[in-house]
Amino acid sequence: MTRIDAQVLHNLDYPWDPEGRIWTIKVVDDLHVMVHPLIFTAAIIVRHGVWAGGFADFYTDRWCYHDVYAAVRAAEAWDPAQEDEPTGWHRHPLSGRRRPDGDPSKEEKV
Predict the structure, then answer these.
(1) Which of 21, 22, 56, 110 places its Cα 20 to 30 Å from the Cα of 36?
(2) How far is the CA of 78 from the CAs of 44, 62, 73, 84, in angstroms?
(3) Tens digits of residue pLDDT in 27-40
């Protein structure tokens, strides 16, 4: 990530939690939809209720994206009240599913 990228990311118009290192994108019926930057990728993570701290309490589901921008766009577009999961992800760690290029027609379980 370049300095310009880091500056843009820190200027996203969403609340940043420095302890959890996450942006909260939205809350829908007590479901917190958040974006978590990782070392090489990013993830949409969700949880019910307010995070009390600690990794065991961190999230209830997670979808991986190639970068923060893709994760933020997918989180913004996703309506968890209407859809089971966001679009565009390439890995769902809890189920072992992968979608090359985020394409649902290419989904495979590893």
Answers:
(1) 110
(2) 10, 13, 9, 9
(3) 998 888 999 888 88
